[in-house]
TrEMBL record:
SUPFAM superfamilies: Homeodomain-like. This is Transcriptional regulator, TetR family. It comes from the Bacteria. Residues 36-55 bind DNA. It comes from Actinoalloteichus caeruleus DSM 43889.
Amino acid sequence: MGATTSSKARQREATRQALITTARALFSRRGYAEVGLNEIARELALTKGALYHHFGSKAGLFRAVVRQAQEEVADRVVAAAERQGDPWEGLLAGCREFLVASSAPEVRRVMLVDGPAVLGWEEWRALDEESSARHLDEVLDQLMTARVIDQQPREPLVRLLSGAMNEAALWLARADSPAQLEETVAALRRLLGSLRSSPGGSPTRQPPVGRTGSAEQRA
């Protein structure tokens, strides 16, 4: 009896994962609005009822697809960060990996374009906070504790950095030169570098943007 129950559970999970994989491929190629449930079910020789059984609706299936994409990106970010021996270098490596992973076509459309539009901003943001944003918050906490960056409210910083990187990933997905990734990473390093504390404990001062020369020269 137990073996039969376990076998059925594995079969259900296999069907569920197959639906997510198939739907993700279709959603990433053509977009949420252009893909129907009948097409997804037909790809796997299933009935539409089987899809409803597992996810309840097309939106429910899409939610599972977005969650999977976000978790995969977060796993790549964490792996890249953990390969570094230093928390600061881990932050830089993780941010770079986020840009690379999120700008991939099969991720960008599902996670950054259709995700907020279909699920709504609040639900999409909640999923993001369970994955990449949570890891970003954790590493910023470590860096503040180590006095690498100054103590400050983390939530505004997490949201600002997340928003900047999401926008950069959308732009990179349409970039026509591989050099633009490294240019974006360099800009991000400069942005993050402005958060670092100086040896005396105060933030490292950056030159004013768009202003050159001494006060006497500007007068």
